[in-house]
């Protein structure tokens, strides 16, 4: 047994290792190694065999591991507890800071209504054209619109005006000229919407839908509402 282990530890023959010190290139070392190891008849063709390209050697596996990334989103309850999506009374917003937003909204609502609505023309609510205007107004985004309360179930809300900062499903969050943030319930008010020189009255109950859902909803024709 000891003799066998001694044979394993013996150095390689000189004919196998003599090309190590003379060849710096690994490819040339392999060619020399094969030429010294193989018979003379096969050693001459070793270099030609190494130059051959194999088709399947280029086709490497491109399979990637499907690593599942656990994206933990906040639930609605956690968002409410953290106060996300709410504008507090101490947010520092001023009425003058919202005037550029109101100007952008005026351009936006004019582009939404297009040729259907012109400030210089008079429109009868019974006309078919007015129904199209009404549909577009109900689907519009009211962030930046200037409104005032003309009727309400709560008398203390009448006369409140300001620019809409937040539009939720059931409320309008507005900033008045006194820089105070107020919350208006939609179901309990009739608002006056200011479009340049014109004013339009809208029942807040018509807008008691989330803004994202309101854009795709088709509203039914209704001329009278109960406040």
From TrEMBL:
GO function terms (MF aspect): endonuclease activity; hydrolase activity; ribonuclease P RNA binding
Q: What is its main location?
A: nucleus
SMART domains in UniProt: POP4 (SM00538)
Q: What keywords does the record list, in alphabetical order?
A: Cytoplasm, Endonuclease, Hydrolase, Nuclease, tRNA processing
Gene Ontology CC? nucleus; ribonuclease MRP complex; ribonuclease P complex
Task: Give GO BP annotations, semicolon-separated.
Answer: rRNA processing; tRNA 5'-leader removal
Instruction: Tell me where in or outside the cell this protein is found.
Output: Nucleus
Instruction: Give the protein's biological function.
Output: Component of ribonuclease P, a ribonucleoprotein complex that generates mature tRNA molecules by cleaving their 5'-ends.
Family recorded in the similarity comment: Belongs to the eukaryotic/archaeal RNase P protein component 1 family.
Task: Spell out the subunit comment.
Answer: Component of nuclear RNase P and RNase MRP ribonucleoproteins. RNase P consists of a catalytic RNA moiety and 10 different protein chains; POP1, POP4, POP5, POP7, RPP14, RPP21, RPP25, RPP30, RPP38 and RPP40. Within the RNase P complex, POP1, POP7 and RPP25 form the 'finger' subcomplex, POP5, RPP14, RPP40 and homodimeric RPP30 form the 'palm' subcomplex, and RPP21, POP4 and RPP38 form the 'wrist' subcomplex. All subunits of the RNase P complex interact with the catalytic RNA. Several subunits of RNase P are also part of the RNase MRP complex.
Q: What is this protein called?
A: Ribonuclease P protein subunit p29
Species of provenance: Odynerus spinipes
């Amino acid at each position: 047994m000891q003799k066998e282990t001694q044979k394993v530890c013996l150095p390689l023959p000189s004919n196998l290792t003599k090309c190590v010190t003379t060849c710096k290139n690994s490819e040339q070392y392999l060619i020399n190694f094969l030429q010294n190891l193989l018979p003379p008849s096969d050693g001459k063709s070793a270099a030609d065999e190494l130059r051959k390209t194999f088709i399947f050697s280029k086709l490497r596996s491109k399979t990637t591991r499907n690593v599942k990334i656990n994206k933990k989103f906040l639930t609605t309850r956690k968002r409410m507890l953290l106060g996300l999506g709410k504008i507090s009374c101490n947010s520092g917003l001023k009425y003058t800071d919202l005037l550029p937003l109101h100007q952008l909204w005026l351009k936006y609502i004019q582009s939404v209504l297009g040729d259907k609505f012109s400030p210089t023309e008079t429109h009868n609510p019974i006309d078919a054209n007015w129904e199209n205007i009404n549909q577009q107004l109900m689907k519009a985004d009211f962030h930046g619109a200037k409104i005032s309360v003309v009727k309400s179930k709560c008398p203390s809300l009448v006369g409140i005006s300001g620019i809409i900062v937040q539009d939720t499903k059931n409320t309008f969050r507005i900033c008045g000229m006194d820089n105070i943030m107020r919350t208006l319930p939609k179901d309990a008010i009739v608002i006056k919407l200011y479009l340049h020189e014109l004013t339009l009255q809208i029942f807040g109950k018509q807008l008691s839908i989330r803004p994202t859902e309101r854009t795709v909803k088709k509203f039914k024709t209704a001329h009278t509402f109960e406040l």
